[in-house]
Each structure stands twice: as C-alpha cells, then as structure tokens.
Amino acid sequence: MSKLEGKVAVVTGASKGIGAAIAKALAKDGASVIVNYASSKAGADAVVESITAAGGKAVAVQADVSNAAQAHGLIETAVRQFGRLDVLVNNSGVYEFAAIEDVTEQHYRRLFDINVLGVLLVTQAATKHLGEGGSIINISSAVIDVETPTSAVYTGTKGALNAISGVLANELAPRKIRVNTVSPGYVVTEGTHSAGIAGSEMEAGFVATTPLGRAGQPDDIAGVVAFLASDDARWVTGAVINASGGIR
C-alpha cells in the first residue's frame, strides 16, 4: 500500500514550482490532493491533469491564503470534497528583495500577509479537522542562514515562520499533530526564470556557495515533504530540515 493511501492533503501555492512538485509527490504516494492557487488557474489545472493522468486524485481550488474567509474556505472545500484532512503543506509564498532604503509599507505587508499571516490562517482552519497523526509542513527558506543583503523583509518572514512552526509543534503535540519545517536552498523554478535569476551570475553565485555544487530542483524538496507527511516521520515534530544542498 502507498504511504499516503487514504489520506487527504492540501498544498497551498501549488500551481507551479516547488508547490506543484509537492502536490505530485503526495499524490504519487496515494494522497488525494487539493491543489491551491491564488491566480494561476491554468497552472493549477495542469498540475491536476498530471496527477489524474497518473491515476491519482486531485482538485484545484482558488484561494488567497492571506484572506481569512478564503483560507477557511479552502480547508472546508477539501473536507467537503474528500471527507477528511490529514496533511497541510503551507507552501504559498512570495519573495521580493529590496534594499533597506527602498522598503515600503506595501512591500512589508505583501510579504508578511502571504508568507506569515497566510500560514496562520490556513493552519487555524486546518486544525479544526486534523486528527491524531495529522502532519503540517511549512516551507521556509535557507535564506535565514545566509542573510542575503536586500532580503531583510523576506528573510524576516521566514524567520517568523520558523518560530511559529516551533511554537505550533509544541502547541499541537498533545493532539498528536506534527509540525515540521523544510528550508530549501536555491531552487530553479518558473519564478527564478521569470525573475531573470536562472542562468545569471546570481545563480552561479548561489551554486558556488552550495556544498553539493548544483542548483536545487523542485523534486529535491518534494521528496523531503512526502517523507514528513508520511507515517515514516511519525516521531518527527518541531524539526527544521535544510533541503539546501548543504547551505547552513
């Protein structure tokens, strides 16, 4: 039997990149997956089509995780569609760098609303349905270890996420719900291509400082998440796993 057979997972921000790879990996392991997206319906539909073509179960659901009503609606849709909830992957996030002189309230609020508030809202909704054995996996970033210049706000959101994850691991442990964090290093995605990072000197710099000597791929992260979602990780909670090629 597949490791996640009979389980239901919600993956936020799953229309592309790391989120899409996670959704596909969980479905491959037997989970029924809610593929959340904020604006890219075409991307989410493509992920669902890929999963169903391989014999899995998935549904695309639009929701802005930083909006309380929509965040709660996302979870309610998952339970209504598949009857239960076992795994939540908080992957939704935005990154935008700015020198301290260029930081604005809008920049700050956009990043913190999606990267931090969104996690709190979706998790709040999910804990109403997660039972014993439930797993919450938050996607952070190795940027908090690198402390990259011009990333003060983005790095701040991920530092907050790590702290929140640790608190929730303790808070939800009496209910036997596990909370863990995965911190990717540099990963090649649609986002890095559109931002002009892929193939650039910046990317070369990232690779040069990665001990394993290459850029990460979305599947490198998805495999770690699939492990944490499964009963193989039943004794793992409150952990921060650096899936970063050795960056720390």
From TrEMBL:
<keyword id="KW-0560">Oxidoreductase</keyword>
<dbReference type="InterPro" id="IPR020904">
    <property type="entry name" value="Sc_DH/Rdtase_CS"/>
</dbReference>
<dbReference type="InterPro" id="IPR002347">
    <property type="entry name" value="SDR_fam"/>
</dbReference>
<protein>
    <submittedName>
        <fullName>Glucose 1-dehydrogenase</fullName>
        <ecNumber>1.1.1.47</ecNumber>
    </submittedName>
</protein>
<comment type="similarity">
    <text>Belongs to the short-chain dehydrogenases/reductases (SDR) family.</text>
</comment>
<dbReference type="Pfam" id="PF13561">
    <property type="entry name" value="adh_short_C2"/>
</dbReference>
<dbReference type="InterPro" id="IPR036291">
    <property type="entry name" value="NAD(P)-bd_dom_sf"/>
</dbReference>
<dbReference type="GO" id="GO:0047936">
    <property type="term" value="F:glucose 1-dehydrogenase [NAD(P)+] activity"/>
</dbReference>
